[in-house]
Amino acid sequence: TQRVDVQELVNHWIAETFFVNTDTGNIKFYRTTDGVSKWRWVMFDYDWALFPSTHAQNYLEEIVNPRGHGVGRAFSTVLMRELMKNADFRELFLSSYVKALETTFQTERMLTIFDRMVDEIADEMPYQIERWKSHSSVNSWKSYVSTLRGIVSEQNGIIRETLIRTVSGTTSNRTLSAIWRGYYHMSRSDVESRFSANKNQSE
User: Fold this and answer.
1) Which of 38, 105, 144, 200 is buried most deeply by CB count within 10 Å?
2) Tens of each residue's pLDDT in the chain, 203 residues
């Protein structure tokens, strides 16, 4: 905790697993050159995030997979596995995830941002397509936009269920489920109650 901003580490993994970024090993982090600030993470290389064929996968349980994470499982999970042994960190991780799902990653908020971003580039897309041939037509681009918007509209519900099943240790992966049960010792209803409790606190 003297060198790392633990909340930012938690935020990093929440974002990576919410958007199901399958390239989790490609990361950037920073601190000031004077060494006064703590290490923080940068949202970086989300090319494979919210991909149609993978956006519903459970990447949350993978962050403690002893076999590693990222492409080819080439990156160690030792840091998160060790941190998860600490009760304060486990509470920070769970409470932060619940809060993120009910605030930052709330569906209507994300759709509002998504629509605004689409509107900002819509007029330029014909020129983009003509110059770079990134799509066969504007209608083709609009089809991709529609697909992605559909994913955004359902991602919160998918990841909420993923969080509940992962923390309660009830996923189909028996090995990783056992690891998560060992961390939290919570039932499905225990995890579900955290959502209602967080909602009541924010009202």
Assistant:
1) 105
2) 789 999 999 999 999 999 999 999 999 999 999 988 999 999 999 999 999 999 999 999 999 999 999 999 999 999 999 999 999 999 999 999 999 999 999 999 999 999 999 999 999 999 999 999 989 999 999 999 999 999 999 999 999 999 999 999 999 999 999 999 999 999 999 999 999 777 656 55
Backbone angles phi, psi at 30, to 5 degrees: -150, 165
> Integer distance in angstroms from the first to the last C-alpha of the chain?
31
Nearest CA-CA partner of 176 in 50, 77, 29, 72:
77
CA separation for the pair 51, 148 (Å, rounded): 8
In the block, tokens 């936009």 appear at 145
